[in-house]
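Quick one, T. Sequence first:
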Amino acid sequence: MTFPSSRPSSSRTVSESFRYRRDTHRYGAHEVILRSVPMGSEVLDVGCATGYLGAALRARRCRAWGLDWDAGAVSIAAPWYEEAHAFDLEESEQLPWPEQLFDVVLAADVVEHLRDPQRALRLLYRHVRPGGRLIVSVPNVAHISIRLPLLFGRFTYRPTGILDQTHVRLYTFKTARDLLDSCGFEVERFLGASDHFGALLQVPGVASALRGMLAHNIVVIATPRA
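Structure tokens:
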């Protein structure tokens, strides 16, 4: 997914939205997220890109609304959503639907791109229906693929991955919890997602012990604190 900002930086171009695709690995972040969305939900997909999660949500009989910074991507995504808008999450004071509440708000691979994620999440907080949930995924900077090179002084940003050069924030399981807690959310549960170690992370006892090293993505399911 792409982050919603109407101002491409020097490291980010409009065409970049089109390089994001759905990861269909059973234990990858997208499939973990989709399994966490109840069938038939009303969903806000923040950072909808070209709509690849919107299509999957429709298959789950959900009604979805989409937001993304890239108007070109939104035009492609539009058929999968009730409505889809180009939208700057960091600058706008309200969503295009100021009074609408959603069963699920998705922010998959979004907040690591934001300069002020607290501001964005507090805005989204206002649109989670009572009893609903926010689902956030962020890359895990404590993954073993980052830890080992760091032992030898290597910390290199790349075009894609955990150290994607467009990421302006880095998260661990603890700092992801701290972020959501600061924005009025109660973490219901953490899920670790990984194409390579995902099955291992499902084993009781293993997930809590090793997810910090083996989870490529941190998926957080949270509810608004009363």
